[in-house]
């Protein structure tokens, strides 16, 4: 099995990073900020509905992102949790309306990872510096929002274990994708927080004296849990440097939209 990779793609005016092979029938997109209808600080493909943008614009942007992923007509099944920088994982096993309503109710209380084994159910999480992580196995996928709190709580390990349980496939069979986020060399934190990460992850956490490398910590977590290192694909894009492509909370002082990790599995 060849390793996963992310390439920059454009479809229907929306630019995103994805895996053209659609492993196990899973289509994934780490969206960029262009191709939508939002204006001002949210220009233009803002997918976040909790940052002050016009709800009608966000709804249109989400439709465009779904279309770019080949998921037209599935907006009514979209699962988009309220992200709270925790480590709660919700599970979707059916596209039936009653289960989706139950999942959305649970996700509305707060969740930062979704494990989905249902075909035709798109999952969206939103970001503006935090780390997007997508895990793919035969029969399911996980979408993870991993800021510093989620990373130190090892939310990626929790989502991986849940995905393995739900699909019956071991971590060694999982492909992982780490999307665009604030890079270690750009992410200065307090000495106290840096110390906590070094205590938890060792020197790999440091890109500099007080520069925190969240991706290195996440990759280390996944490898320790059994995902082969050559089955983990990353990007070299730093959101805080590439504000022409991505939204960055830190670079803009908090006034910005959100790009997304959008994933759906076909019923092949």
How many E strands? 13
Proportion of strand residues: 15-25%
User: Can you say what the CATH homologous superfamily is?
Assistant: CNF1/YfiH-like putative cysteine hydrolases
Radius of gyration (CA) equals 17 Å
Q: Can you tell me the number of structural domains?
A: 1
Helix content estimate: 10-25%
- CATH-derived architecture: 4-Layer Sandwich
CATH topology: CNF1/YfiH-like putative cysteine hydrolases
Q: What integer is the average pLDDT?
A: 97
For the record, what CATH class applies? Alpha Beta
Count every helix, treating DSSP H or I runs of 4 or more residues as helices: 6
Largest sheet: 6 strands, mixed
Ends apart, CA distance between termini: 20 Å
Shape: globular
Arrangement of strands in the largest sheet: 4-5-8-7-9-12
The secondary-structure element order is EEEHEHEEEEHHEHEEHEE
- Helices and strands: which structural class? alpha+beta
Poorly predicted sequence stretches spanning 5 or more consecutive residues: none
